[in-house]
Amino acid sequence: MIGNRSDNLSEYPADLEIQPLSQKIRKVVQVPPSKSITNRALVLAALASPQGDCCLENVLESEDTEVMVAALKQLGFHLDVDWPQRRIVVRSNPSRRRIPACEADLHVANSGTTMRFLSAVASLGQGRYRLDGIPRMRQRPIQDLLAALNQLSGVRAWSEAGTGCPPVVIETTGARAEQPIAVRAGTSSQYLSGLLLASPYWVQEGEQVEIHVRGERVSEPYIAMTVAMLRQWRHSVVEVAEGFRIGGASDSAWRGHYVIEPDASAASYFWAAAAITGGQVTVTGLTPSSLQGDVRFVELLEQMGCRVTACTEGITVHGGPLRGIEADMNPISDTVMTLAAVACFATGPTRIRNVAHIRYKETDRIAALATELRKLGAGVEEANDGLTIHPQPLRGAVLDTYNDHRMAMSLALIGLRVPGVIIRNPACVVKTYPQYWLDLAQLSR
Question: What does pTM read for this prediction?
Answer without folding.
Answer: 0.93
